[in-house]
Amino acid sequence: MLNIILFGPPGSGKGTQSEGLIKKYALQHLSTGDIFRSEIANQTALGLEAKKFMDKGLLVPDEVVIGMIGSKIDACVEQEVKGFIFDGFPRTIPQAEALDKLMAFKNIPIKIVLSLEVSEEELVKRLLGRGATSGRADDQNEEIIRQRVVEYRSKTEPVAGFYDKQHKLTRVKGEGSVDEIFASLCHAIDSL
Ligand code: ADP
Fold first, then answer.
1. What is the number of the ligand 1 atom nearest to the C-alpha of 88?
2. Can you give the pLDDT of all 192 residues of the chain as single tens digits?
3. Is the whole model's pTM more than 0.85, yes or no?
4. For residue 89, what are the contacts with CB-CB under 8 A and spacing of at least 6?
């Protein structure tokens, strides 16, 4: 199975690039952010819990995220997909450890971690731009955006080192045209 983690700060283009990768490699998309937003829209208990953190630009607690992703993977494995693309997950070392255990147990390990590299000023610019049109509350306030970047630097960035030690990390320049970045990502996948 071609299991990919698309890694990078908020606004680095994970959602945009996932769309192309899903089509090209017939992957199942698992975006924790999308899942939480859909849970919030449906006003589920999980959604209400996640919203408390998301509205402040904070990460949702690990136990909430890990429990949820396990059941989503199980549901997809039953449908026999060619691989998973994880977008916005794992975002902490405990999440990465939990994912590794889960995938090892199912004998479908992560093949590659693609890290989109984008400067902080570019990130804030993109997120504010998205906030003006997407209706996402967490993209409309510069303070919340900066808080998300702080969370990323302190809790999520170390996850890159975790996968680098396993020789699974490939860094890709996340600035340039959508097509150029897509080509770099495909090149990394095709060189596996
Ligand atoms: P972005 O990458 O642009 O910040 P996401 O849609 O991936 O957007 O995530 C939005 C919010 O959802 C995050 O700021 C966080 O509060 C929550 N979230 C998403 N995925 C996770 C995760 N794996 N762990 C903890 N919180 C998460």
1. 7
2. 999 999 999 999 999 999 999 999 999 999 999 999 999 999 999 999 999 999 999 999 999 999 999 989 988 877 878 999 999 999 999 999 999 999 999 999 999 999 999 998 899 899 999 999 988 889 999 999 999 999 999 999 999 999 999 999 999 999 999 999 999 999 999 999
3. yes
4. 5, 30, 31, 32, 65, 69, 95, 99
4-7 and 169-173: which strand pairing? unpaired
Which structural domain, as residue segments, surrounds residue 13?
A: 2-118+157-190
Q: Ligand 1 centre from 6 Cα, in Å? A: 13
The number of domains in the chain is: 1
Catalytic residues: 14, 91, 130, 136, 148
Instruction: Answer yes or no: is the C-beta of 11 below 6 A from any ligand 1 atom.
Output: yes
**Number of neighbouring beta carbons within 10 Å of residue 22:** 16
Residue 8 lies in a domain: yes
Domain of residue 75, CATH code: 3.40.50.300
Q: Please list the residues that pair with 4 across neighbouring strands.
A: 85, 112
